[in-house]
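Slide 14.
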Amino acid sequence: MFRKPFRVKSNVAVKSSERRNLRTEVARRFSSVTEAFLDELLPKDDDVHALRLVLHNDETCCVYSTRGLPVFFERASKSGERNIFPTVYTLWKNPDIINCFVTSPFVLTKLQGGADLMFPGVINIDELGDFAKGQVVSVSVFGNRAPVGVGVTASSSDEVARNGPTGKGVLMHHVYEDFLWELGNRDILPLIPHAKNESVAEEVEGEEEDDDQPVAAATVTEEPEMETSRQTLPDVDDMDSLLVWCLLCALKKCIKKDELPLLTSTFYRKHMQSCCPLGASLDVKKSKYKKISNLLKDVEDQGLLSVSEQSKGVDAIVSVNWKHSLIKSFSVPSQNATESSELVKKESVGPLVEELWMPSSATLPLFKSSGIAKGTTLTVAEVRKVVTDYVRSNDLVQPGNKSFIVLDPILSDAVAVRGTPHAQRLRWDEVMQRIVQKMSPCHRITLCGRTPVLRKGAVEKISVSTAIRTGNKKVTLIRGLELFGVDLREFSQVMQKKAASSTSVGERADSKGAEVLVQGTFVKQVCALLADRYNIPSKWIEIKDKPAKKSK
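Slide 15: predicted structure.
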């Protein structure tokens, strides 16, 4: 519903009478909501705003926000009954106000891509109790009670008992990291322990040997690893211990000797942040250290590492004591719970890009002599073989100097340059260069599991550039990702976590497709992500790191 951008038609303060009606309706629809919780969500002495939205499909929707945070949204109903749904921000404060369907963490990316939750993917189907068709429910991932989405049931519990858990289970309306989530403060998914994790795991394990339960058996292969990794995680509510844990994890898992010296700011932003457990966030200001320099000074006193001032106000880690007992005894989780499912590095094959050429009218007679028809695509190696075979079969190598080719009429026309006289002889490399230049370029891209696509023209490289926007703010723009099979929304979400910065997907200024925008300058990080995660060689990435100077 909110997977695509929407337009805010109006934003007005809610009147007292409308607020009372809204509170009454929320209390009626969600019976477990207490008066105190209502006062927190829809306070009587604070501004509550109603935002009228026009969605991508022209559907209208109303979002109620308090202090800039969306707390409920309401969909239009033909029957006249108010369809009110809590947002993920509201459910993170109280996950128990509606029934919750639990699924695997790997399903989250599918939901964020616009898919509905299928019943075979529901882990706690036997613990849900009775539910009606069209009932408002939430969806969470195994190991974390914090909901990742809100929707309505596609069928009732009676229908599930009668027909089995097949087909669609929840029709998703709102999912974590969609555009409604972006309307708020964009908090990351919190970590709320599941009260019934153990019972669910035991139930699934008990079904592992049952051949008639393929869905449960498939789930078992994932959950024990998640439990193992959770045992090594710190208390996310204790910021001091969380910072130290992420520091040790970064030192043992991410840092290599040849990377030193490493700027402390880079170490914190790139390595410590990436080691933070799923649902938690690092904020050094909420700890006793207040500054990252104080944390590093503390561990330096313990002999874990050495920090040196490179220039005024710029510190760097110059050495790490890998033999220190704290580092040696630290255990990195076997399945890295520090990254959400959409950030787990994929073992995938990158796009195969082939530069090809087709014979042009000037070069076609040369290729026809070798039986190659018009429109045939050739690689450089194949072009070289055709030219070599033609030269040798027609004995065109200059006697006494094998570095030159004597040009016959066909070769002469193929290598002729407009405005210059026809040459009698040319070097081998110059003949090859001229022939390729006179051919028509094209390229073929093969993505894993897809049919190869042939396009005319040279390969359009991925463009990574920086620009200055309003307020002298630097941004990084990434264009041309679609050609290489990169999902822009997924790339934006991954980059948001990697850079710890705001990202968005929008139309290019030249209307030639879409682009990803990252707040700040992250050219190196973008190139590294394209190489490491998407296996795109650097030759297909064009860097334009030259922001325009602001006119005085």
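Speaker note: The chain has five domains: 1-195, 197-231, 239-341, 354-443, 462-544.
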